[in-house]
Amino acid sequence: MKSRRRFRKGELVWFRIPTTSAPGKGSGLPSITHWPGLIASIVAKSRVLVDGNTSLRTADFLLKSDVKSAQAPQRSITRYEYHLRPLGMFSQTDELVNDTEDLLPWAAGSDLLGGSKGWEHMGQEGTRVLLEGVVREAAEDTGPLDETAIKDAWKQRWARRMPFREMAEDWNTRAFRLGVALKTGKVRERNDLPLIPGYHQCLDPNR
Question: Sign of torsion, CA 100 105 109 111?
Fold first, then answer.
């Protein structure tokens, strides 16, 4: 599935990622093939095709080239580079760069990750990963569990801010983070939260 349309700053979209397959067959869980993110900025990059040549030359190069080349038939080509902020990372600064062909509108999500049932299963899977992890950590922790210690543990283990590129590729990590991302996307869609400023409020683990 691909989209050729242009997107706007602040738009909620899906971007393609390397597939993470669900563990075991018959689990009803979809493979993770796309991730939700917000478009933080858009960079337009123009190039000029000279004299039908398949190689592209920048406008700056043409200005410095000889008159004969500059007068040759030219055709301008513009492509758009999208800087995305992936959801579920608890970070309002991490960005990825994608081309149009790797993006899909948020509305296309009904056909991604198994549709509405797949989304529900992913939410349940994320909750399972969290609950099992918390129980395991509670058994391992020997220190006092006051409110401050619990908040610190939450920030360091589950709500740790990280670049998307540094996220582990194992199923549990991605399932939990995707569950957070899907919930954030739904909140953003329902409330039409702005990207800048304030969109990070729905990502703040203290809220």
Answer: negative
Looking at the domain assignment, is residue 162 inside a domain?
A: yes
* Helix/strand/coil for 98: strand
Produce one character per residue of 38-57: b if its CB has 16 or more CB atoms within 10 Å, e if not.
bbbeeeeeebbebeeeeeeb
Closest CA to 48 of 69, 66, 33: 69
Sign of CA dihedral 93, 98, 99, 103: negative
Compute CA 45 distance to the chain's CA centroid, rounded to the nearest angstrom: 22
Return d(Cα 163, Cα 28) in angstroms, integer: 29
2 inside domain? no
Q: Can you give the pTM of this predicted structure?
A: 0.71
- The β-bridge relationship of strands 103-105 and 12-20 is antiparallel
What tens digit of pLDDT does each residue of 77-99 get? 777 888 999 999 987 778 888 87
CA distance between the termini of the chain: 36
Q: Which domain, by its residues, includes 145?
A: 12-46+79-203
CA atoms within 13 A on the CB side of 127: 7
Residue 73 lies in a domain: no
